[in-house]
Amino acid sequence: HPLPDAPELVQTEGWGGLYSGLKPSLIGTAASQGIYYYFYQLLKNKVEDVAAARGKKGLGDGTVGMFSWLVIAAVAGSINVLLTIPIWVLVTRMQTHTQAERKVIESKRELLLKEISRANPMDAHILKDRLAKLDSEKPRPYGTLQAIREVYRESGISGFWKGLIPTLIMVCNPSIQFMIYETLSKRLKSKRSGKRFPKKNITAMEVFLIGAMAKLGATLVTYPLLVVKSRLQAKQEIGRNAASRYTGTLDAILKMIRYEGLHG
């Protein structure tokens, strides 16, 4: 996983490190919510108008079905992803920058140590000075403009849409959650249809538990996509070798399975 843990962040960057990427994250959150609900309401109004028109012609009851609601939510979510993913690419970069820089410094240090072991005494002295200077370097978090320049320098405009495919697939997370929730609630209601349970309604606590289980199931199913997305969006030098550099979604999945196993 590309993100360092909290104690490591605090130790290397201070408490401010826990808020890396906060500014673009706040902008992204506001933009995502606004864009999502705008297109959701727009599509909802159109679908409701179509359903009402069909109802007048006797082609339906004039209401929108549950499947249509899921499709509307998925389309609105996909539009939101397409428009806002550059912001989240920057957020991921800013959150993983320090760890990536530390990996780069470690790689340079290893190369210098190899050169020192093979160099003559005069050159070895110069290389040792370079090593001391390198050891004194500490990676520092950078700002949004620096992140924008780095992404563009690495991959051009297309770099701002890295991780698009797994992010689009993750739009199905709420749909999976909804299906699990409805399945569990229907089973619970059907068990109460007998004489032992005259009341078919489920309690508030049961709704809470079913909802929690539904979200847990949806998260377990889609979590690998979240990891792949983060790996793609993080600075590619975050790995020590080509095994941690990815050209696309499929390449990332295959390399992670090959070098880290399914648990990766």
From TrEMBL:
It is found in: Membrane. GO terms for cellular component: membrane. Its main location: membrane. SUPFAM superfamilies: Mitochondrial carrier. It holds the Pfam family Mito_carr. It is a multi-pass membrane protein. The chain crosses the membrane at residues 64-89, 160-181, 202-226. GO terms for biological process: nucleotide transport; transmembrane transport. Keywords: Membrane, Repeat, Transmembrane, Transmembrane helix, Transport. The keyword Disulfide bond does not apply. Solcar repeats lie at residues 1-46, 64-187, 202-264. Belongs to the mitochondrial carrier (TC 2.A.29) family. This is Uncharacterized protein. It comes from Aegilops tauschii subsp. strangulata.
